[in-house]
Amino acid sequence: MANDTHDTLWKLIKDIRFGMFTHRHTDGRLHSHPLTTQNKAVDDDGILYFFVSRSSELAQRLRSDGVVNIAYADPGADSYVSITGTARDSEDHAKISELWNKAAEAWFPGGPTDPDLQLVEVTIEEAEYWNVTDSKMTQLFKMAKAVVTGQPPKDLGEHREVKLRA
Known about the structure:
This protein has helices at residues 2-13, 57-64, 93-99, 102-107, 136-149; strands at 19-24, 30-35, 47-53, 67-74, 79-90, 117-131, 158-163. It is α+β, with helices and mostly antiparallel strands. It has one domain: Roll (Pnp Oxidase, Chain A). Strand 1 (19-24) and strand 2 (30-35) form a beta hairpin. The radius of gyration is 18 Å and the shape is globular.
């Protein structure tokens, strides 16, 4: 079950360049940052990886409060994913090297050993996704039918809430 869920989540987010990474600020308010998911897949551990600046406000906040949400949206494909998890710093240099890419070099010119580079692991605890597979024309028809009948549209795609951890 977890593998199917991981595969589905990865299928929905893999082509989305940025996720909106939300955390709590010191005043309790929520703050979001666009971050690039560095994974090449979601493995059995259900961990997403991000590179951040070690000296950034985001990295500092995550050290004291790791509760996060990452929201992904692909309006063209009508798919949306919300992931809740726990973030933590990682010193896994092998993982940093494995995930390293040219785009990251723009932010961390010192490469995978840049002293300001921080790998953040987010362990997925819960996820919710909406994936509409009908064509736009079919969606419009179902919504028009809903207006005429006064009944909410049905079967506009898959919507699931999944718990990956207790």
